[in-house]
Amino acid sequence: MPAGTLYRGREGMWSWVAHRVTGVLIFFFLFVHVLDTALVRVSPEAYDEVVATYKTPIVALLEYGLVAAILFHALNGLRVIAVDFWSKGPRYQKQMLWTVVGIWVVLMAGSLYPVLGHAARELFGS
Amino acid sequence: MSSDTTSATIGPVEGAQYDADNPAPYIEAPRKRTGKTPRATRGNFEMAAWLFMRLSGVVLVVLVLGHLLIQLFLDGGVSKIGFAFVAGRWASPFWQVWDLLMLWLAMLHGANGLRTVINDYAERANTRLWLKGLLYTATVFTILLGTLVIFTFDPNIR
User: Fold this and answer.
1) Could you tell me which of A80, A29, A125 has the C-alpha nearest to residue B72?
2) CB nearest A38 (choices: B65, B73, B145)
3) Which of A94, B4, B36, B133 falls 20 to 30 Å from B147 in CA-CA distance?
């Protein structure tokens, strides 16, 4: 491993890494998403055809991943704001990260059925 | 004997209790502003960008999570989305403004984030120039395209 790729490690560094990775992934999806939405100016058929791919089980799994990335980026972003603007933020950054992770896990469990339910019905019937 | 010498040369400052939370002695900032520092050294663009990330971030949490809730969670999730659904939502100026604001803030927030990433990892000046040129071109194109689509949307296109 080249020198300097690991900073102090632990919660501070890894949350920063995860914030970057999720941010870049969301930004790339945003490009695709504006382009697919622009098809409403071409024709209703062209738009509906592309949106049909968003309803397939494999893409549904990607949508669950998108929700995961956005939820982490949103919650951790609020934590970053707290670290920057709340006087006790830096002292509690670790506790706040584990709070973020806890809320994220709960919300991701709650998202399972709403986001993946239609794919499950298609795969397993009824 | 040798271990005694080592601890003696480190002295009391290094002997302070350091751990993961308090890892190093305090060092004064190398470019601290003094009376001799010119009033404006480099402009405030980076500070404005830093502030924009936090302000747009708070607004985006509301806009994007609301968008996700409507598109992927409520009322059958993704399976209800289609041209008719889009036409129904953009019939209301409220959702047009919502989507327009979300488009602009998310694109600028993401573009500034990627600008930071490029600055961090592209080591050659030429690489940075080209990557950022590509980034700004794609960003301007996408913002303009999305804005045009929202403003010129026609539910009776066919």
Assistant:
1) A29
2) B145
3) B133
* Domain total in chain B: 1
ipTM score: 0.90
Q: Which residues in chain B are contacts of A72 at CB distance < 8 A?
A: none
Residue B147 lies in a domain: yes
The CB-side HSE value for B129 (13 A sphere, CA atoms) comes to 3
**Shortest CA distance to B78 belongs to which of A41, A60, A10?**
A60
Give B60→chain A minimum CA distance, Å: 8
CATH number of the domain enclosing B148: 1.20.1300.10
pLDDT in tens, chain B (158 residues): 444 444 444 445 555 677 777 777 777 777 777 777 777 666 789 999 999 999 999 999 999 999 999 999 888 888 889 999 999 999 999 999 999 999 999 999 999 999 999 999 998 999 999 999 999 999 999 999 999 999 999 888 87
CA distances from A70 to A57, B66, B88 (A): 20, 12, 26
Where do the domains of chain A lie, and which CATH numbers do they carry?
11-124 (1.20.1300.10)
Domain with B139 in it? 45-152
